[in-house]
Amino acid sequence: MTERIVQFGASEHLSGVLRNDPSVRGRPGLIFFNAGVVHRIGPHRLNVKLARALNAPSLRFDLSGQGESATAEAGLGFERQAVADLGAAIDTISDELDAPDTIAIGICSGADHAMRAAVADPRIRGLVLLDPFAYPNDTAAGADFMARAADPDRWSRKIRSMMARGESVQNSDNEEQTDDEIDQGRPVAPKEDFAADLTRLVERGVRILIVYTGLVRRHVSKPAHFFQTFADYGFDRTIEVDAMPHTDHTFSSIASQEALIARIDDWLQRNYRSARDERLS
Amino acid sequence: MAATPLYFGDSDRKLYGVFHGPTTRRSNAPAVLMFNPFGEEAIRSYRTYRQLAERLSRAGASVLRFDYYGSGDSAGDCADLDLDGMVRDAVMAHEELEAMTELRRFAWVGLGLGGAVALCAARATGANPAQLFLWDPVLNGADYLAVLRGAHIAALSHALDLPASRIKRDTPKEPAKMTEALGFHLSDTLRSQLLDFAFDDRNKIAREICLIASSDTSISPSREDILRSAAAHYRRYDSASTAWNSNEAFNEYYIPTDVIDIIVDGVSARS
């Protein structure tokens, strides 16, 4: 196996697994880390599956105070510490791997950390953001409403539930997702700030792939919804966006995991062909 | 001593583990081997297992947590995970812990399917652990597949915000035909081994067995009778804590401390 344990960070308090192999030299280095409450292997071991399938050197690690990593001594707040931890991870990638570029891959709150780190650290040259912040879009909300209204399974569930509770139609809830469910309880950055950060990164040449799942289908269920929401910024020419509205937030089915791996692999192949790949083609 | 991550095992079957050395000296303190449950359950119990290991090390024990081949940070794809392999890995981990500590007194802790692995490993090796803590252990593989099917349908229904009837339509009716559960493969080999597994060995395999039952766990009296006969001493603890694998426990960083106390106190009392 081409994986080994590394301890790194200012006080060697961060713990991770470095993956390297002669066959992947020259390809970009990938960084994986915690997704919300899940340790470095990711939900359903997704980070390990991605690291091994994407044929690139990588580091997957736990942020300070999570998983196998100890608490940091610095006393920074959680968000600033996460950015510092990602900086230490890039140092390790630079020292240990022959990787010309570094790409951070973050899920949910991990996407928020990855974006903040990329804004702060120009060594991050690529971002894969899985369910980053999403913002209301009338077209997406309308499509979601229509899809629900046309779904007989939902009506039968609703009627059964109402009968069980002895409620009338007027009193029943509309089963629509709440904002808190969509945001996963995390504070959402103002739309203008999110757009400004993306703009800054794009102008710096950072390549970005955003994938939205069904969690945010009331805001984005097609890439066009995202580009419409940010129509003033021209992201349709600079950022790749994909929507998987029939997939849940943590990619709980094997098929959705395989689809995600294929999607990221395709993006990497198109954007980061190594000099070695060029020679071989 | 801080927790030390390590790889061990054969070069074609490298296993990831974390060793927690004792932080206090205590004579006759045991070495404790912790057996992970399956798939998503291992992710949900991760923090609890880590905290249990830290508590045990503070009580003077030497502890090894590890990932089976095809799980966690160990080598292998998820589809490679099977029950016989898990038992082989457990034996390897036991030998590694024995070599690292030179201790001869062991306590094993098995949660969920990890309980089944611990029972199989004890039977296969004759390791005769001084204490075997079985926390909501799987004692019948066919029943466990049915539990997984129900959990899979409930989880996807919740995660996709779809009626359970829709998920049921896309899920095999027979648990034995499930090819995945909660985001993890259930290979033909694993399913077949689970269908063959029912703990029915009345031979003594440990000096003491402590069954820990969460509030939502049901263990049939007949299975418990067999378990009772498999050790010289037997006791049962019924936990009132929120179930360790519930969404609530997972999302709220909840740790069932009463169970941790029972295990740490149990290990310490025999030291």
Brief descriptors of the model:
heterodimer; A: 281 residues; alpha/beta; Rossmann fold; 10 helices; globular; B: 271 residues; 2 domains; eight-stranded mixed beta sheet; two-stranded antiparallel sheet; 20% strand
CATH structural architecture of the domain at 3-131 and 249-280 in chain A? 3-Layer(aba) Sandwich
Backbone CA Rg of chain B: 18 Å
Overall mean pLDDT of chain B stands at 93
Level-2 CATH architecture of the largest domain in chain B:
3-Layer(aba) Sandwich
- Relevant CATH superfamily of the domain at 3-131 and 249-280 in chain A: Alpha/Beta hydrolase fold, catalytic domain
The backbone outline of chain B, from C-alpha atoms, is: globular
Uncertain runs of chain A: none
Q: How many β-strands of chain B, per DSSP?
A: 10
What composes the largest sheet of chain B? 8 strands, mixed
Compute the number of helices of chain B.
10
Radius of gyration of chain A: 20 Å
Q: Tell the overall outline of chain A.
A: globular
Helical content class of chain A: 40-55%
**Major pleated sheet of chain A:** 8 strands, mixed
CATH topology term of the domain at 3-131 and 249-280 in chain A: Rossmann fold
Which percent range describes the beta-strand content of chain B? 15-25%
Oligomer: heterodimer
Number of strands of chain A: 8
Commentary on this structure:
The complex is a heterodimer of chains A (281) and B (271). Chain A is an alpha/beta fold and 281 residues long. Chain A has a domain of 161 residues: 3-Layer(aba) Sandwich (Rossmann fold), CATH 3.40.50. In chain A, 41% of the residues lie in helices and 16% in strands. Chain A has ten helices and eight strands. Chain A is globular. With 271 residues, chain B is α/β, with parallel strands linked by helices. Helix content of chain B is 42%, strand content 20%. Chain B is built from ten helices and ten strands. An eight-stranded mixed beta sheet of chain B has the order 1-2-4-3-5-6-9-10, sandwiched between helices. In chain B, helix 2 packs parallel to helix 10 and helix 5 packs across helix 7. Chain B is globular. The mean pLDDT of chain B is 93.
